[in-house]
Amino acid sequence: MSSGPAGHVARSTPSSTVRPPLETNRVSGPARKRTFLHTADGVMIEAVYEPAAAAFPDTSRPAAGHLVFVMAHGFTGDVSRPHVRRIARALARHGAVVTFSFRGHGASGGRSTVGDREVLDLAAAVDWARGLGHARVVTIGFSMGGSVVLRHAALHREQEPAAVVSVSAPARWYYRGTAPMRRLHWLVTRPAGRVVGRYGFRTRIHHRDWDPVPLSPVEAVPRIAPTPLLVVHGDRDGYFPLDHPYMLAAAAGEHGELWIEPGMGHAEHATDEALLARIGDWAAGAAGI
To answer: Would the keyword Hydrolase turn up in this protein's UniProt record (predicted)?
Structure first.
């Protein structure tokens, strides 16, 4: 482990149509639940709850003692995507998991604001997790979702999570320094791009510009303290280079920890099982499990 600009830097080894509200166990698993949640601004979002896996060390404890991860996916993801389900299965070895589709994604209503009002979607999911009996909530987000968990922890202090994990997140808005981000800006800002988003990626994107511009991730981070924060980033991330995680770590100060992952690319697809296991262990420790 080597020291970074702030916190700790670990160089580890490589390792639509909306249906009405419902809750059902039709998805496989005796205690798995699927529902639609209403956000504070009236958008209906799809969500799935998965209990901790049978291998969880102490399933005799009451639900309130169990860790629950509330997972915020990346742009163009949703609860049914294989990469989202894979992450959920891995995290379920450490606690229960709530996944949800951001507005404009999958079967959720509304349109994507690409990280702005999505904090309200996460807030609804956290409320649901706590309503199911979980007192210790860890929010974990990937890429766009990584920026959302940071802003949620800063802006919704009444929902203060036990810990926050942000993977492959941007530090600042309007970044166009890589080819993938230039393509993403075309997708979001151009009418033809939004058509591609809707029909090619099942993502409905709002046509309006941000007004006002929301609090940026790096501006949000100092407001999270003293909640434990883990920032994870790959040194081969094709979207956001390493100045992004280093900026977040510097803003976090002593309450933040930074893992730079050798050989890792971007977000969920690049997060392997070994890394997810380490994240799960970190989260359990940070939450006092």
So the answer is: yes
In the structure encoding, which two tokens stand for residue 207, read together? 């046509």
For residues 71 and 141, the answer to whether their CB atoms sit within 8 Å is yes
Give the 3-state secondary structure of residue 20. coil
Residue 181 in any domain: the answer is no
Handedness of CA 121, 127, 128, 134 (dihedral sign): positive
88 occurs within a structural domain: yes
Q: Where are the beta strands (DSSP E) in 126-234?
A: 136-142, 163-167, 229-234
Which CATH number belongs to the domain containing residue 119 in this structure?
3.40.50.1820
From CA 84, how far away is CA 74, in angstroms rounded?
9
Domains held by the chain: number: 1
CA 44 to chain centre: 18
**Residue 188 maps to a domain:** no
Tell me the residue type at 80: S
Least confident window among 26-30, 41-45, 64-68: 26-30
Task: Tokens for 174, please give them.
Answer: 């309007």
